[in-house]
Amino acid sequence: MEDPTNPLAPVKTYHRSDQEFAPSESRSSPWSREHRTSKCCVYILLWAVISAAIALVFALVVFRVETPDFRLSDVTIKNLHYATSPVPSLNATLIANVTVKNTNFGRYKFENGTSVSVLYAGHPVGDRIVINAGRARARDTKEVNVTMEVRSSWLGSDVVSRNLSSDLNSGTLQLSTYAKLRGRVHLMEMFKRRRTAEMNCTITVDLPSEKVQNVRCS
Ligand SMILES: *[C@@H]1O[C@H](CO)[C@@H](O)[C@H](O)[C@H]1NC(C)=O
Ligand SMILES: *[C@@H]1O[C@H](CO)[C@@H](O)[C@H](O)[C@H]1NC(C)=O
Ligand SMILES: *[C@@H]1O[C@H](CO)[C@@H](O)[C@H](O)[C@H]1NC(C)=O
Ligand SMILES: *[C@@H]1O[C@H](CO)[C@@H](O)[C@H](O)[C@H]1NC(C)=O
Ligand SMILES: *[C@@H]1O[C@H](CO)[C@@H](O)[C@H](O)[C@H]1NC(C)=O
Ligand SMILES: *[C@@H]1O[C@H](CO)[C@@H](O)[C@H](O)[C@H]1NC(C)=O
């Protein structure tokens, strides 16, 4: 606030002294000087507005907190065994990387004990996987490899007879994974913002080829 007023003060005194010493002189020189100072004021104002705009954009970009993207990647299936009789049954091992993609300008620290459930037709088909506390650095992706055992013995007999039986016959099976990751985004060592990321992935398995056909996460 002090800067714009200071340059104005000396100009006024110059103007007065010019008139006293040379009243007959043309008004062109004080006029152009005045013109110059007003131009200068415009530049100062413009500079202030532009720097304020840059500061605002910077703050909006840096301090915007986004929920990290939490998903499965590189899913492979191993030890796949299935039979349709005497009872429909399926065992398999899923190996995958759990990824936490952090697009923020600060690290994301997630809490200990995040559990990932593997589901078939909405029902658990194996032990939950527990992910320990960790962090995804600023604008970086953290990857943790996990191994999930799928056992149809976890399913109720109704799901086995209604859903698993027909899926085994059709040769395609859908599994899904669900998890909630709780943590905080740390900005400039000053601010912490709580963000909970959800994983919801659908894995399509092609049984005859024993391969993962498709992984879709929402
Ligand atoms: C799956 O594993 C269970 C024991 O965990 C076993 O009884 C069953 O026969 C296996 N199923 C297949 C198709 O291998
Ligand atoms: C997370 O939990 C596991 C067991 O549940 C424990 O061994 C480990 O020390 C914990 N880690 C932290 C950072 O609290
Ligand atoms: C399970 O099977 C029943 C009967 O065929 C069907 O209505 C239901 O949508 C199936 N559930 C899933 C999750 O596919
Ligand atoms: C899976 O994550 C690990 C780190 O845990 C990484 O070294 C590896 O490259 C990842 N695998 C793939 C296929 O990206
Ligand atoms: C992840 O991969 C590393 C080396 O690639 C291995 O030492 C570790 O046991 C794996 N962890 C899990 C949970 O599979
Ligand atoms: C997972 O996503 C599907 C659609 O992609 C949705 O129908 C389902 O309700 C979601 N599950 C959870 C637990 O959010």
UniProtKB/TrEMBL annotation:
Its main location: membrane. It holds the Pfam family LEA_2. Residues 98-202 form the Late embryogenesis abundant protein LEA-2 subgroup domain. One of its GO terms (biological process) is defense response to other organism. It is a single-pass membrane protein. The chain crosses the membrane at residues 40-63. This is Late embryogenesis abundant protein LEA-2 subgroup domain-containing protein. It comes from Punica granatum. Signal peptide: none annotated. The keyword Transmembrane applies. PANTHER family: LATE EMBRYOGENESIS ABUNDANT (LEA) HYDROXYPROLINE-RICH GLYCOPROTEIN FAMILY, LATE EMBRYOGENESIS ABUNDANT PROTEIN, LEA_2 SUBGROUP. It is found in: Membrane. One of its GO terms (cellular component) is membrane. InterPro entries: LEA_2, NDR1-like. Keywords: Membrane, Transmembrane, Transmembrane helix.
